[in-house]
Structures are given as C-alpha cells and as structure tokens.
Amino acid sequence: MTVTQLGMPKVFHGxxxxxxxxxxxxxxGRELKNEQLRANLGFATxxxxxxxxxxxxxxxxxxxxxxxxxxxKQDVMARLPELLEQFEKNFTERGGKVHWARDADExxxxxxxxxxxxxxxxVIKIKSMATQETGLxxxxxxxxxxxxxxxxxxxxxxxxxxxxxxxxxxxxxRNRSEIRDIFLKKMPHIDKDISDNPAELAEASRHHLxxxxxxxxxxxxxxNFGVADSGTLSxxxxxxxxxxxxxxxxxxxxxxxxxxLVPTFQDLEVFLQLLPRxxxxxxxxxxxxxxxxxxxxxxxxxxxxxxxxxxxxAALADQVxxxxxxxxxxxxxxxxxxxxxxxGGHAYGSVYPGPIGAILSPxxxxxxxxxxxxxxxxxSLCGACYEACPVKINIPDVxxxxxxxxxxxKHGKGEEGNKRQAPDQMDAIMxxxxxxxxxxxxxxxxxxxxxxxxxxxxxxxxxSWLPGLIGGWTKYRDIPEPPKQxxxxxxxxxxxxxPKQRAASDRVDVDALIAKNSGLAEELHRRHAGEAQEERxxxxxxxxxxxxxxxxxxxxxxxxxxxxxxxxxxSNGTTGEGTSSQEGND
Length: 586
Ligand code: SF4
What we know:
The chain is an alpha/beta fold. It has a domain at 425-483. It has 26 helices and twelve strands. The strands form three sheets. The chain has a six-stranded parallel sheet with strand order 1-10-7-4-2-3, sandwiched between helices. A four-stranded mixed sheet has the order 8-5-6-9. The chain has a two-stranded antiparallel sheet with strand order 11-12. The model is unreliable at 566-583 (pLDDT under 50). Iron/sulfur cluster binds at residues 278, 327-333, 356, 388-391, 393. Residues 521-586 are annotated as: Disordered.
C-alpha cells in the first residue's frame, strides 16, 4: 500500500546539545565576573585574530575567494536533495555505507549499533562538532562504550570533565597551569614533576594516546566536507591525531551534517584556502585527509557515514536564516566578536557559541523554543562577524530577522506564533512610541515635555538613572540632558528670520542640466569598468605569483608545541592563548 501524505510535511527540529539550559543574559551576567576567563579569552582571541589578519592580507584575491565560497554554498543549498543522492550513490559504489539520521538520537543509535556489531567497548575520536551536537560521548558512556578524544584540546576538555567553549579552540578558557593540574589528576603514568611547559604537556598527551591509537578497532570522526561528484569525505586538522584515527582502525564512522557537501572536487580548492587562513591563521592545514571508499588492505575496511539532519531542513526552509548553513566552522566570527570575548562560549548554552551559535542554534531548534530565544539578542550588531566570515554569512541580518521571529512567536503572530504572552513593559513602550511617531500632533505635544527631562539630569547635565525597563539602559550608559526646546518649536518661532524662499526664476533648470550632462554617466561607467577590469587582472597575476612562492616555501609548523605556546601562567598573572587544535570538524 502506498502512503500518501496530505498537507505540509512535518518540520523536524534538532535535538541534542544545541539548546541552552539558561538564558544567555543570566549566564553571561555570571561569566562577566570571572576576570581570569576574560583575560584568557581576550589574549587568545586577539592572538588568533592578528594571525588571521596577517595571512588573509597576503592574498590579493581574498574577496573573490569569499564570494566564490558564498556562491558555491548557495548552489549547494539550492540543490541539496539532488547532491545528497549523488553523494550517497558515489560513496556506496566505492564500498562505503550511508545512513540517514533525522535527529541527534537517531544518529547516536546508528553509531552505537555499528560499534556493537564490532563488539568494541572503547572507540577513538577525532574532534567533531557534529558528535558534540548529538552528545555522542555521553550517549556511548550510558551504553557501556567509552569514547576517547584524541585531539589535544578536546582531550583537556574531556579529562577536565568540562565543556568546550570555542569551536576551534575548545579549551580556550583554560590556561596552561590548569591543564597541568588536569593531566596530573587524570593521566595515571604521567611524570609527577611535569612542568606547565607546552612541549612537556604535549609530550605527556602523546604518550597517553599512542597506545589507544594502536589498541582500538573503531574510530569516529566528523567531516569538514563531503564531495558529491566523487563520494569523497575530507577532514582538515593540525595535529595528526586525525590521520591516525582515519587510517589505523578497521571501522570508521563519520558523522556529517547534510549541509557539508560541495558539488565537485574542484570546489574544495576554494574552501581549502578559506578555511585554514580564517581558523588557525595558517596558509594551509598541516593535515588534509580525503578518503573515497574502501581500498583492500589499506585503511578502514568497514566505512560508514551518518548523514544528519537534526534541524537543518528546518533552517533551510527559512529564507533569510538558511545562509547559516553555509558555515565552515572556522570560528573567525567568534574571534572578532566583542560579546563573545567578554561573555565566553559557555554562556551560549549550545555547542555552537559566538555569533554563528547565536543564529545557528535557534534555527536548528526553532526560535520559538524558549531555551534559545535569548540568543539572537546576544549581539551588538556591530557587523565585525560579517566582515570576518570567509563565506560572507550576513550574521547581523539573520540576528535581526530572528529577533523579529521571536517577537512574533511571543505575540502569537506569524508562522512561529504558537503562544501568546501578556503584554509587558517593552510592548507598552513600543506601542506608545509607535502611536507618537506616526502622529505629528502627538509628537509635538510629547516634545513640549522635553524641559521636564532636565529635572532628571544631574549637575553634569546627564541622566544616569531611569526606572523600570529603560533603567537597563542607564545602568550602563548616561543619557545627555534633553534640550529645552524641540527643533520644530524653535523653527516655528524663528523661521521668519531665516533665508527667504527663492523665486521660481532663480531656481535651477533641472531639465536643462540633465540634457547638458546626458551621456556623461555612461562615459564614467565605461571608464570605471575598464579600470576595475585592469585591477582584477593585476590582482589575479599577483595571486598566481604568490601561490608559486608559497609552493616553494610550505609553512608546516610544528603544531602541538606551537599550540600551547604563550598560554597563561596564572601564578604570574600573565595570560596565554588557551589550547588551539584543529578546524571545527563537523
Ligand atoms: S559563520 Fe563564518 S566566520 Fe563564523 S564560524 Fe561560520 S564560516 Fe566561520
């Protein structure tokens, strides 16, 4: 029997670690009092930001690359069903198995079934945002399987029984003396005299993990990209732990959000330039791994990919918000965000912190979900995130759009309107403002009250305290004393002394002016187009030159030691970078 669906299909929102347990405002209020956290974050975000600016500045075609990245992702979103099927066909033909998961629970269950088939009680893991999103580690733990994080920063978070606070640098909130304490507590064979020197800490981690790499038969990864036309998966990373997980075990299970596709292998060229420069501030990733199916006798022979929706289809249906799915998890938006720098990543509740988290989490859960409806307000709308984003996601636009949806939801309006709350102070203020600004008589009457504002001002001619909701403004800022008179009242009195209106005969003959200048605009346009073309060609030549140079001098930095360099020595009161690891593999 064929089942026929009537009406609109059901929208599945995401589940798992993408919903906050507390509003952003109240969590951030507490975090703001943690001065050590703010110092660690300030130092780390500024260091990464400077590195990024330097390497981005080397590419004369950076803006063209950003545009290309954005356009490829727009194309992917427009053709997602077709590209997913193409990926599934190619991945399967090369010996892999594709699984589809509607939400976090389904994805976790599929992974557990595969692990049980292999009779494994322990698995090794590459840093992955997708598995953090589904809460895989906790789920496996509950079902008797332990998951060992092999990325250095994730290992610190796991051993510290902590939560990540940054996509790329999950332990950004820890300084190196805190890391030393965690290692001493949790690594059984560690040298008890270990210092907080980054090289010693990295070495301790290496010893701790090595035996686990060789012992375990099942590995779990995310994926930075999936290539539809070849069924290839790709992961970029900085430490080499990923390469070990991708090659040593017999079974590899990769979690991938359905939006991670690119249409062709050639499209990777754009993202493999955008991602390392935006994330770790490197010209290329130390390790870029790609795998297309099973090769007998070489690498995992039992290959699975779990294609995960978990609210992405719902986000795709939002015409403004869908651009959040273009995200390549580079974290550049976090490193430039003044709100993130002060509040830290934990305040966002979800595994996706910072500006991208403020839009992605409510899109995945639905903005009407109370857990996440404070996130679109976690921004000053300064636009720094948009300028930093390598795929040009207009985060401020989406934030404003989601704020509108939240207001609609609270007032029982629009598609999100499933509840109605009693009007509050803000509604009263906005209702009054609307009535006043849409009626000039009312506005004029209200302006007569301006001199009364002077009574609230102090001797310094500033208003520093107001009651109720608007007191939230004066808590942090002063309002200048209002003028004694509104301009329109002043003008009414003084316009007789102002300049006289010009007689019709003195006015400019606009038609004659247009006739005189006709053709001038086209000429200017032609000239500018020619100049722009020349500039483009020059930029492309410079870019080609630079690439030649870079091929000659590859920048393969010794990563692990570099990662921990400069971390905070809290006992001396200096601050450090936190622990940087690898791209936010999703
Ligand atoms: S929104 Fe843009 S800047 Fe932020 S993590 Fe995603 S790709 Fe990077």
